[in-house]
Design a protein that fits this description.
Layout: E1 19-22, E2 25-29, E3 34-39, E4 45-51, E5 58-61, E6 65-70, E7 73-78, E8 92-93
Antiparallel strand pairs: 1-2, 2-3, 3-4, 5-6, 6-7, 7-8
Length: about 90
């Protein structure tokens, strides 16, 4: 951003490196409040993507669920449905 006086203002954002893994899947913090679950065997194909309620301080991935938490709160999401066939999954907040 520039000002009328010719000054240039820059802003630096630092996104923490949060991740978790279970079997062939890994979950990554792709922005401050967005998490992606990728299948590492299938060329890192994104199998689920979700927007979280807050910026998490930890992530934990299970076979069908993902837990994201900040401070003393935890949000639990169901990211995988029965009969998973490699399609983009719909995510449900539990």
């Amino acid at each position: 951003m520039t000002t009328a006086n010719g000054y240039f203002l820059g802003f630096l954002t630092s996104i923490p490196s949060l991740y978790s893994a279970k079997d062939n899947y890994a979950t990554l913090l792709s922005s401050l409040t967005e998490v992606s679950v990728v299948d590492c065997v299938k060329n890192n194909m994104i199998v689920a993507k979700m927007n979280l309620e807050v910026e998490p301080s930890f992530l934990t991935l299970g076979g069908y669920h993902l837990a994201a938490g900040a401070n003393s709160s935890i949000w639990l999401y169901k990211w995988r449905q029965e009969g998973y066939e490699g399609k983009l999954q719909s995510v449900q907040l539990i």
